[in-house]
Amino acid sequence: MFAALHVPDLTVAAALKAFPEGRGMPCAVLQIDPEAMAEKVKLPLQAVNELARSTGIASGWPLNRALVRCPDLKVLSPDPAGEAELMRDLIALAESLTPDLEIAGRDTLILDLSRTTSRHAARLASLELPGACLLYSKAPTPDLARLAVRHASCHGLQISPKDIAVLPFSLLGHLPEGEGFLPLLKDWGIRSLGDFMKLPRQALAERLGPRAGAWHDLLHAKSCRLLRLHRPPESMEQTMDFEEALRSTEPLLFSFKRLLHSLSARLAARHVAVKTLRIIFHLDGGACLLREIRLPEPRVEEEELLRPISVLLDSLKTGKGITGITLDVEITLPTAAQKDWFIRQLPRPERWTDTLAQLEGLLGPGKMGIPLPPESHRPDDFKLRSADGSPAPDPGRFQPSCSLPLRRFRPAYQVNVASDAEARPPRPYALLTGPYRGEILEARGPFRQSGHWWDPQAEWRRLEWDVLLANQHLLRLAFQPPDQWLIDGLYQ
């Protein structure tokens, strides 16, 4: 047996905490945007309460239209902190009955009562949420309970497929992708969930897809899924402060070993492993230094976690004494996979971790990885993938097509160019500024390049020339509209 707890109009209930006098009035929540109001944009209502809905108002209406329909409408500002507090109180009420619960929405919980005694289950009727209305319904499946609790007539009842058949079919809009099917079902003449349940499942799936077939099974209580249990996240963060600032590696390594000893035991007890190590060094003067170590494979053992930290400490240069350290980890499930005969794998991933840590210590965080060519013709464009041990792309596929090597300038030199501004495209005549100046004796081009024309924010265009100057320098010259000239590189 499952139960669903639902707080109707949670957004309005949270906003009314700051205005308790409006509990007996039609109320709506509206996010005030000064810029939109200055431009006279019609702001839609985020949420309304039951009294406002009884006047014909619904969420999404413009404020001016709602005020015409209900002049006594009280407009409230949203209170995200109050909404989160109400949700925490609701979870605390549910956990007093059972620890097995799922957060099914921003205002709904599903409880598994299979391991709850009848005496504890009877406490559902006495649950109260201060400052908000609380509804509950019971059903043989979790999704059926979640659907039934949305209708006030099902409050406090144990619902079966026969009972839910009399409810309006608009409840299907609360199911995933259900809102888009409501106009079509209305055209079919469906007015209640019972009308939908009478339709042949096979015909529904053929016309509306497998989603409609899943709804049919849900309403007939033929499918009972497992709950996605809510568990509060447990922090693995550990902090150690030092009486005196440390400036050498040995005491730091000893401190990390103490932290990893307890961390390894906690990881083994929870059957999880470390994916990423996050280390914060607290320095003299209050400054902090953050370093991350990504492991190629999840690890639990203390020695394997200490090794990359030791490599990091050997290359660490802080310039100040270290007054404390904070160690946190990103956890994941441990790997348990059979080796593949046909794919080359790392024989000792821990040594690969040491190498990555040494390179990151030399180059700095975020400056090391595997360059990958994106799906674009933009020159010098590449993506950097984390060096996690995956095979790099075949370099033979990306050989340069030019016969002369081009030494690129990063960043490119921005220069002034004498050109024919009337020509389309512009024709360069001489370089006036920059490290290479002179008259252009010969130019080949322009070679046009562009991309992302479908996105006005990311669209780019450029023209390129290979130019020979009077001093015999062979350059690659680029023009980026509207008026930017760049020297991309020097042919050698």
Automatic annotation (TrEMBL):
Cleavable signal peptide: none
Entry keywords, A to Z: DNA damage
Source species, domain of life: Bacteria
Gene3D superfamilies for this protein: 3.30.70.270, 3.40.1170.60
A Gene Ontology BP annotation from the UniProt entry: DNA repair
PROSITE patterns for the chain: UMUC
Domain UmuC: 1-121
Bias-annotated ranges (Basic and acidic residues): 375-386
Pfam families assigned to the protein according to its UniProt record, in alphabetical order: IMS
Start and end residues of each stretch annotated as Disordered: 372-400
Family stated for the protein in its record: Belongs to the DNA polymerase type-Y family.
PANTHER family: BLR3025 PROTEIN (PTHR35369:SF2), BLR3025 PROTEIN-RELATED (PTHR35369)
Protein name, entry field: UmuC domain-containing protein
Lineage, uppermost ranks: Bacteria, Pseudomonadati, Verrucomicrobiota, Verrucomicrobiia, Verrucomicrobiales
